[in-house]
Amino acid sequence: MLDLLKAYFGFDRFLPLQEEIIAKVLAKRDTVVLMPTGGGKSLCYQLPALRLDGITLVVSPLIALMKDQVDGLLANGVPAGMLNSTMSAQDANRTQDLARQGKIKILYVAPERLALPGFQRFLQSLQVGLIAIDEAHCISEWGHEFRPDYRNLKSLRRDFPGVPVIALTATATKPVREDIVTQLGLKKPEIFISSFNRPNLTYTIEPKTDPLGSLLHLLEKHQGESAIVYRFSRKATEETAMELTDRGFSALPYHAGLERDLRRETQEKFIHDQVQIVVATVAFGMGIDKPDVRLVVHYDLPKTIEGYYQETGRAGRDGLPSDCVLFYSYGDRSKQEYFIGQIEDDDEREKARVKLDQLLGLCDLQTCRRAYLMEYLGEPWPKTDCGGCDICLLPREEFDATVIAQKILSAAIRTGERFGVNYLVDVLRGSANKAVRSRGHHELSVFGIARDVETDELKELVRSLVSKGLLAQQGSGYPTLGVSPQGRSFLNNREQLTLTRPKHAPAARQSALDQNGERETAYDTRLFDELAALRLQLATEREVPAYVIFGNKALQQMAFHTPQTEAEFAKISGVGDAKLREFSEPFLKVITEYLRANGQEVAPERVPVNAPKKKVRGISNSIRETRDLVAQGLSLEEVAEQRGISETTIRSHLERLVQEGHRVDVSHLLPDEDRRLEIEAAFKEMGETRLTPVRDFLGDDFTWEELAVVRLDLRQRLAQV
Ligand code: ADP
Ligand code: ZN
After folding, report:
1. Chosen CATH of 396-502 out of 3.40.50.720, 1.10.10.10, 3.30.70.100, 1.10.10.60
2. Is 40 close to ligand 1, i.e. is its CB under 6 Å away?
3. What is the tens place of the pLDDT at every residue in 560-590?
4. Lower CB count within 10 Å: N or C terminus of the chain?
């Protein structure tokens, strides 16, 4: 079995439970598999399919995904096919013929097909070795994704009495599990429940004061990586997508109100890395099996812990470290409570209230978030420090915040409750910048009353007051802060306030464990970039998502081990026989050339996985190409167009070049003299190197691109002095 695993899938060992499950399936037992997303469910039927006589039928509701799954199997040398409503009759007929001739080992079918009499006859003409029911919770009305079509599956059991059935789902609740067993008519099934902990996900819940600012910050950290941002309403998804696009990010909205075709197109673009960020309502997710989503943000409060767990679960299916961040505010909480109040049915309303309370419990927690989640999911959690949530990573202590809270609230009142967190902090810290002076706020008594508190700490305090409900925010994007009735009574009645703050220095982030429990290796990120560029090219030629060629894990291993022969290449995780034949040559070529260019006798520089890329000296070919095009006088837009990558990426190339001490002539990209000087002045006056505060300061008249280019120019000139 291990031989098959390596030969077809390129893996050296099984993930937890896979081996046990596969053994039962091969012994023709019915099985139910409950595993979290990313647990490796597919292999549990794909590997037996190679061993069993006859064809394996896989029923899956995720039509959008079928093609990618089949492409993935074909790339691994597994004869696979699919039948669903999106295909032409001709293609469907050809697939049916191949299946009847025994030339397909794994056949994906959509559940609605099963009701068609013609299809029944077709099935009867096959020798079926195994039936796999993916997303099996869809059969249960208790689940959140009930599909009437799934009730047709019962007939499969009747029509193929001796054939084992394997039902798989990531939904673990007991009623759903029981429903699966009875509805499918499973015979004495063996039930496998794996841990629902997702060790590679880091959970963070932070007060929502400057959500857009925080989001931009997160996206900067995850530059060029796939991200999902969940919002409460359809309108909000469109707003945020627009705000991100305005700032040069590649983002699209997704919600149930959009045309079906448009939704499908957006999904496709996301899967194929043609759009980086999708801003969505919870309607987005089902059908997104993208393995390399690195960031999931809940911009608004989710309704239940189940929802939160499921949505965050879409991050990091490939087992690599990923971030899940939720913005929490008192205002969002009231909004949810209001909506719950509108529910007419007493029972339903009460249920929703309980669910929300449980979620709020998670938000208000001062102890490990993972422990709370696991406990909620009914799984014992032994450890107190998980090393992967904001609380464990940054232990907190209580302190008396009465006086500082009074100062902050007073400052908000005295400045007219019209400003956001940054402005308020400027006033409190006594920074007499242009904006503050122009309004005469440097003459207020509150000006500089919190001079002794660091900027970041003040911002954090403001956030805490928002989540405590003493400050109320208005507007989205950069909301203004007002004092709530609760805040006024706090001031008037001289109430006491205790808050928590990080204890000592932040705890060092434990390096995340991967799914095999191994420490992440350190790899050469520059070589990784080159390999990823090759992967993209191969994927584009074949019209498949990049991950069908190789996952990030495989590329990281290549960039670490730098294999130089076929035998060495074969050892990389994810390289099976078929991929060895097809891809070893181009990848080995890139690796060898890279090593040669960097002096073969020197071992390549290796940096820790999560270290900022700037630690590696030198630049990749891709960045060099950008440099050359810009040097020829092309605009950012033209370079982006010519290279088929986004302007944000081009901009990041330029930043990188300057950081590495290369000279780039950006004079033709600069705005006219007046604007340039004004932007420069803002950077200097504010003592800022970040774009967001300067843009806040200057206002909407200036584009992000202008700011970024002026900053680049400034940096180069300063470096010369
Ligand atoms: P699920 O369907 O449970 O969400 P998948 O079947 O998509 O999970 O697998 C998740 C990821 O784990 C995929 O990228 C897959 O290639 C990888 N994977 C599966 N089995 C193994 C294994 N034995 N060793 C290494 N990686 C594996
Ligand atoms: Zn924790």
Report:
1. 1.10.10.10
2. yes
3. 889 999 999 999 999 999 999 999 999 999 9
4. C
Ligand 1 centroid distance, CA of 282 (Å): 24
- Fold match flag (2-193 vs 201-379): yes
Residue 464: how many other CB atoms lie within 10 Å: 21
CA of 507 to the centre of ligand 2 (A): 12
Q: Where are the domains of the chain?
A: 2-193, 201-379, 396-502, 525-606, 621-636+661-720
pLDDT class of 623 with cuts at 50, 70, 90: confident
Ligand 1 neighbour 314 (Cβ under 6 A): no
Cβ–ligand 1 contact at 248 (below 6 Å): no
| Mean pLDDT of the region 187-201 | 93
When the pLDDT of each residue in the chain is averaged and rounded to a whole number, the result is 87
Nearest residue to 459 (alpha-carbon basis) of 488, 431, 423: 423
Contacts of 251 (CB under 8 A, 6+ apart): 229, 240, 241, 244, 245, 275, 276, 277, 278, 279
Q: Is 313 in the pocket of ligand 1 (CB under 6 A)?
A: no
Least distant ligand from the CA of 196: 1
Q: What is the residue with the minimal CA distance to atom 26 of ligand 1?
A: 11
Instruction: Number of helices (H) and strands (E) in the chain: give both, helices first.
Output: 32, 17
What is the Cα–Cα distance from 377 to 600, expressed in whole angstroms?
Answer: 52
Angle formed by the axes of helices 402-414 and 455-467, to 10°? Answer: 90
| CATH architecture for residues 201-379 | 3-Layer(aba) Sandwich (3.40)
pLDDT above 70 (res 612): no
Overall fold of domain 2-193: Rossmann fold (3.40.50)
Nearest CA to ligand 1 atom 20: 40
CATH of 525-606, one of 1.25.10.10, 1.20.1250.20, 1.10.150.530, 1.10.150.80: 1.10.150.80
> Are 524 and 618 contacting, i.e. CB atoms less than 8 angstroms apart?
no
With a 6 Å cutoff on the Cβ, whether 211 touches ligand 1 is: no
Strongest mean pLDDT among 91-100, 266-275, 668-677: 91-100
Residue 689, token pair as written in the block: 């190197």
**Cα 34 to averaged position of ligand 1 atoms, centre (Å):** 14
Distance CA 424, CA 465 (A): 13
Q: Are the beta carbons of 653 and 627 closer than 8 angstroms?
A: yes
Whether the CB of 87 sits within 6 Å of ligand 1: no
Q: In this model, does residue 524 exceed pLDDT 60?
A: yes
- 11 CA closest ligand 1 atom index: 24
The alpha carbon of 351 and the centre of ligand 1 are apart by a number of angstroms equal to: 35
Over residues 146-157, the pLDDT tens digits come to: 888 888 888 888
- State the Cα–Cα distance between residues 185 and 172, nearest whole angstrom: 19
278 lines ligand 1 (CB under 6 A): no
| Rounded mean pLDDT, 394-419 | 91
Is the CB of 241 within 6 Å of ligand 1? no
Cβ–ligand 1 contact at 551 (below 6 Å): yes
CA-closest candidate to residue 210, choices 422, 411, 407: 422
Distance (Å) from CA 202 to ligand 2 centroid: 9
